[in-house]
Amino acid sequence: MKARRPARGRKPGPEPDRKPDLMPVRWRELGGRVLVTNDGGDYLWLDREPFEALMAGKLKADHPLWAELARTEMLHDAAVEARVVERVRRRSHHLQVGPTLHVVVLTLRCNHACTYCHASRQPERRAGFDMSLETAARVLDVILASPAPDLTIEFQGGEPALNFPVLRWFVEEGRRRTADGSKHLYFSLVSNLTTLTQAQIDYLVDQGVAVCTSIDGPAELHDRHRRLPGGGSHRKTRAAMARFDAAYRKRRLDPALAYVNALVTVSRGSLARPEALVDEYVRMGQKVVHLRPLNPFGMGRKIWAREGYTADEFLRFWTRALDHILELNRQGIEMAEKMAALLLTRILTDDDPNYADLRSPCGAAIGQLAYNHDGRVYTCDEGRMVGAMGDDLFCIGDVHRHTYADLIAHPTVRSLCVSSCLECLPGCADCAYAPYCGVCPVYNYVEQGDLVARCATNDRCRIMLGMLDYLFQRLAEPGLSELLRRWTEVRDRSSVFEPRRAGKPAARAKARPAAAPPRRAKKGARRK
Q1: b/e map of 118-143 (b: 16 or more CB within 10 Å)?
Q2: What digits encode the pLDDT tens for the residues 194-233?
Q3: Domains in the chain, please, with CATH?
């Protein structure tokens, strides 16, 4: 609904017969009430009768709801408009930064054969699928040409640790070339951890490389899907995590900051066991669990038919898991769900949680770039996986032939920006959740044959709607708002992600805004 502008010369302050002059608002009926939101991310619950009076212009300034409308900046005046503009600018600051996340695929080789793999893995001993030092040098040239002051290089695969010499080169050459402070460079490794030697673990810890792995639940569930020749994937990954913990303790690093992140890939076998999966993360000492649905990128239809599920099935799993986590919170156990925490950050704060799928436009190319082992560059890691399916629509160049300027000016980059700008998309522009949500054009292309989502039949849209419905309804419950607000608080771990130097004090935990680096700008690590 378009806002009506006040007449010139109108004096400030409500008058009893004054009709509300609204800022642009959106609304959604939910549980018998109406949720009203504005562009700044404020929201207000209204019963049906006062909502209809508000929309009809019949709600008078002496109505008790007028103060709430003013508090949530739904009523227009010049000062409110200026504040909302500034808040939208803050929430969209990433548009002025450039790509901060650079996904580097060191190899397609992998020692696992996961049932749901969508990383185009090759057998561990097969040659010809590692990134060479020559390609690595050109990739680093492109990365350092990004205007972003803070850059994260995320090593992926396959199993990236199988090409450890090139990983080491990236870290050491990247540190050398940014020693003048021109860029702040972070490194992250997404790995199943099972090939790492103690010397490699010590190197990663000493160089401040963040490490992320996957634990898909209790051992029997994890090993069913994350298959390692000879078995024991869960046991070997947990053993490697313990060796990292020992290395962090040896260096007297704060355990609240120095630890291996773990993530979940939710397969069909997980759907009936959300509580067991969450409890496994509690036993591991993790404080966050990221329950990520499978996606169709790079995955054959036969695999999806075996491992996939509907949006409604995933939402039933996710809401059961959230209910269980909230009960654990009430018992004093610290645990949060990552996607819920990201959405709550969008709902309850003006901070950018640094997650490309919750941006408008999305972060493809303008927030991240993905570099294949052979030097081909993609708008995002999802786009690279579509390339592995034989469709290079999202390939925007090659580091051997193109500069950063060439890549970012590619027509596909513009197309993805236009097709992910919520404010001009049918089904999104007038959605009450537009201030908090985002779309993935790559998903839309794979599933619906178009960069622009057809929301009514889009499973990703259905999942996002279900998650946001759940969170808003729980936020409205007495006593839950402050508990959920704590999920938006994160610790500054940046001091851990720096080379250890003799005599340097150990890192200590401190609170920081959710948008501060280092946080990956995309989905969280996906496959290891």
Answers
A1: bbbbbebeeeebbbeeebbebbbebb
A2: 999 999 999 999 999 999 999 999 999 999 989 888 889 9
A3: 25-91 (no CATH), 94-512 (3.20.20.70)
